Amino acid sequence: MSEKLFIPILLGTNRKGRQSEKVARLVFAEMEKHPKIETQLFDVRDFKLPDDDYGQALKDQFPQYRDAIIRADGLVIVSPEYNHGYCGKLKGVLDLLLREYVHKAVGIVGVSAGMWGGVRVIEALVTTVRELGLTVTFTDLNFPRVQDVFDGEGKPVDEGVYGRIDEFLTELVWMAETLRWGRENIQSKYHGQ
To answer: What is the pLDDT along the chain (193 residues), one digit of tens a residue?
Structure first.
């Protein structure tokens, strides 16, 4: 496959002072450099979801996200862990679509101020993204004690993080390429074939 994979990244928290934004920007920058990936950054903070409505009926109010996911071969979600779960705003954004996600890869990046690096938020997200039809990669990416990961200029203090990101992206690319081939070559009720 010579055409680049289109894999957007979704920053999954709107919290003030969020450390997850540094993580999302780092992963996004590495994705932009990857020879097989084209990407676009989405931030749940930019989605003005109504207080009195929810779900797929709203997707046409967010055409940039809708069209990106229709075109996408996969998705990266960066989410901090809040009491073993994830931000409600992230759930609202994910629930805007359904069939648009089916048979596409998803890589999850967990972020935490604690020592476990968002392991539980990844576990919580797996059931949600599976229900949406996304296929979760084997390799996750964790950022424990995120407050200690970056220096004052927002650069990682440990160069080893780049190797972990590369391993994560290698698995994501494999999964996205495999699922793209399947969508293009195997008949499915979800893809109009």
So the answer is: 459 999 999 999 989 889 999 999 999 999 999 999 999 999 999 999 988 989 999 999 999 999 999 999 999 999 998 888 899 999 999 999 999 999 999 999 999 988 877 889 999 999 999 999 999 999 999 999 999 999 988 899 999 999 999 999 999 999 999 999 999 999 887 775 4
pTM above 0.90, yes or no: yes
The two three-digit tokens of residue 8, written as one number: 């957007």
Contact criterion met (CB below 8 Å) for 143 and 118:
yes
Give the other-Cβ count within 10 Å of 151's Cβ: 9
CATH architecture of the domain with residue range 5-185: 3-Layer(aba) Sandwich (3.40)
**Under 8 Å between Cβ of 46 and 90:** no
**Domain residue ranges in the chain:** 5-185
